[in-house]
Specification:
The chain is an alpha/beta fold. The protein has two domains: about 10-185 and about 365-380, Rossmann fold; about 205-360, Glycogen Phosphorylase B (Rossmann fold). It has helices at about 25-35, 70-80, 85-90, 100-115, 135-150, 160-165, 215-225, 245-255, 270, 290, 295-305, 315-325, 335-340, 345-355, 365-380; strands at about 10-15, 40-45, 55, 55-65, 95-100, 120-125, 155, 175-180, 185, 205-210, 230-240, 255-260, 275-280, 305-310, 325-330, 365. The strands form three sheets. The chain has an eight-stranded mixed beta sheet, sandwiched between helices. A six-stranded parallel beta sheet has the order 12-11-10-13-14-15, sandwiched between helices. The protein has a two-stranded parallel sheet with strand order 9-16. Helix 2 packs parallel to helix 4. The longest helix is centred in the middle third of the chain and has 14 residues, at about 135-150.
């Protein structure tokens, strides 16, 4: 038996990732290690330096890449395909190879080719716009994706829309799919307790996490300026350098807006305690990837006590609709603008009351979710594990 009671051998996993410094990579490693798996992580990194280890997993850097630098990333992939020695040495003896996003899947496929009998798992958290385009580069990447999909044994997605609206329409995709939502992961620590902000204006909207949507910046800063103090905007996270030259400076110049910078998981409770609402709307890839995502902040905000704001027409809005919670908009600006101008404490408290009724297991992942993921990756049956289920 492993630490979570699974009656199966421990899997040796080679995890190939697009960014070793991505906190979501550490979260996935934590899930696999909690299930008793042996993990080595290899991949590219963004930022100045890669980590030496991720939790207790060994790390093999494959080179530095940058956001929105597609040609550079393609060359980095090709370089490691031509000289795969470090990858193959690190993955020796692995039972499972996981590729996180498409560029990592190309490397994972090469690694798996050296491991007879190993399983290949594709963990897809985003659909790049080129996979939906018609240009020559788009068609080339689509052909590469089609070739890679034929070889995978399992697809892991964070939103059912990825399978429903994308992969089910790809003829080369025939593998089973597993839905693993971006819930707040709680293994050894205490689960988060909601600490709602005091009911009453000024109403604070939090924009937290991956800051990559310029339209969100424009909408929120205009909203705060127009209401002259009744609405305040609190921003925290890492801005995309490909989108914003100086987001901190732009927010400092915007009235009633505050930027806190990047934050850790330990700081989330204090940040969300300052927010009445959490902004879920993302137009970065409007009508495409942004419409399909179920982002981390959907689960984080509600676990920590903030009311989410989303569009009805996207997957996040449909999630909120199923649970009967949140502020769901047909128009991201005018409708909310009118509603917040007249919002009173009683209306806000009713929104909070509905959010408090969401089952905690819909927001928080625990050891059973880790076991389900590990069993699916290894190829074992998942019935009775109590995890997210298939997409």
């Amino acid at each position: 038996m492993g630490p979570l009671g699974q009656a199966r051998p421990v899997s040796r996993i080679a995890y190939v990732v697009h960014d070793l410094n991505d906190p979501a990579v550490a979260r996935r490693v934590k899930m696999l290690r909690a299930a008793g798996e042996s993990v080595v992580v290899m991949g590219f990194y963004r930022g100045e330096t890669p980590p030496d280890t991720i939790l207790d997993a060994r790390v093999i850097p494959l080179g530095r890449t940058a956001d929105a630098k597609l040609v550079q990333r393609v060359l980095a992939v090709l370089r490691n395909l031509v000289v795969p020695g470090p990858m193959l040495a690190a993955a020796r003896g692995a039972d499972v190879v996981i590729g996180r996003n498409l560029e990592a899947l190309a490397l994972a496929r090469r690694v798996r080719a050296s491991l007879p009998g190993a399983r290949l798992v594709y963990e897809c958290l985003d659909i790049h716009r080129l996979l939906l385009g018609s240009s020559l580069p788009a068609r080339m990447i689509q052909r590469i994706e089609a070739a890679l999909l034929r070889h995978i044994d399992l697809l892991v997605v964070s939103s059912p829309a990825f399978v429903r609206d994308y992969f089910s329409r790809r003829p080369s995709f025939t593998a089973p799919a597993l839905l693993v939502e971006n819930k707040v992961l709680v293994i050894d620590e205490d689960p988060p307790e909601p600490r709602p902000a005091p009911a009453g204006p000024p109403w604070t909207i939090g924009w937290l996490g991956n800051l990559r949507c310029r339209k969100t910046f424009e909408v929120l800063t205009a909203l705060a300026a127009r209401h002259d103090g009744r609405i305040q905007i609190l921003v925290a996270g890492r801005p995309s350098p490909a989108v914003f030259d100086d987001l901190p400076g732009a927010l400092a110049a915007a009235p009633h807006c505050t930027y806190l910078g990047p934050y850790s998981y330990a700081e989330q409770a204090d940040i969300y305690a300052r927010c009445h609402f959490a902004w879920m709307i993302d137009w970065f890839e409007e009508g495409l990837n942004s419409a399909w995502l179920l982002p981390n902040r959907l689960y984080e905000a509600q676990a920590f006590g903030a009311v989410p704001i989303a569009l009805r027409s996207v997957e996040t809005g449909r999630w909120l609709e199923r649970h009967g919670v949140g502020v769901r908009l047909d128009d991201a600006l005018e409708e909310f603008d009118a509603g917040v101008a007249s919002l009173d404490a009683g209306q806000y408290l009713e929104l909070r009351r509905r959010s408090a009724l969401i089952p905690r297991e819909d927001l928080i992942a625990g050891s059973r979710d880790c076991a389900t993921l590990a069993r699916a990756i290894s190829g074992a049956k998942t019935e009775g594990d109590g995890g997210d289920g298939s997409a």
